[in-house]
Amino acid sequence: MIQLPSLAINAYMRRRLLASAKLGLAVIPFYLALHFIHGYCITPGSFILPFWFGFAIGVAELFLLKNWLKDLPFLVHLAGKSLMLIGVMYLAFAVLNLLDVFIDGITWQAYAQAIFQHKTLIGMVEGLGVIVFLLFFIQLDRLLGPGLLLGYVTGRYHRPRRELRIFMFLDLKGSTMLADKMDADLYSNFLHRYFTEMSEPILRTGAEIYKYVGDEIILTWKMR
Q1: pLDDT digits (tens, 9 = 90+) for 15-50
Q2: Residue by residue, what is the 3-state secondary structure of the chain?
Q3: pLDDT of 130-170, one tens digit each?
């Protein structure tokens, strides 16, 4: 019994790291397309940099920032995280370019030109667009349940299919009594807080949220 929480956390971390790696792979085609648009040469860095970029965004969002700004409106939440992450990425880019100073011996003037040149700033704007795109779909995937969004996008559920699944029905005890005692706005805020607080433990178990029915959450897991 003592090992179960540790096993659950390890499984959760493996799923989140795998999801981050998938985000890294998803960014590569975007950057290759930008290479063709701008006429850049394809190098090993054309694959390594975007993978690292997407992976870092995934790790930051899924491990570090998942609860940051969560109570703000969605667009404010998305904009705040996107601007913060692009700032961190720009700082990381500047630090990585310091290697050229210490290893290749380029001058500080050349380093400053590389950091602030027009091509770099355009790349940051394009990177911001990619970040907004990734965060938007991360939030949708979190709302629907792990992997469910990908299933819709790939057409997995466009036709009926038979699957063996485990279902769990989470219902608030005494919710009718609470609804009678609270006014409509207060009760709605209470339910919103309840659903928000339940999101993290649900995601840790790898469950998919099948639907919400009033104050009830219906969860499902694939049989393994």
Answers
A1: 778 877 877 887 888 778 877 777 777 877 778 878
A2: CCHHHHHHHHHHHHHHHHHHHHHHHHHHHHHHHHHHHHCCCCCCHHHHHHHHHHHHHHHHHHHHCCCCCCCCCHHHHHHHHHHHHHHHHHHHHHHHHHHHHHCCCCCHHHHHHHHHCHHHHHHHHHHHHHHHHHHHHHHHHHHHCCCHHHHHHCCCCCCCCCCCEEEEEECCCCHHHHHHHCCHHHHHHHHHHHHHHHHHHHHHCCCEEEEEECCEEEEEEECC
A3: 778 877 877 777 766 666 777 777 777 777 778 888 999 98
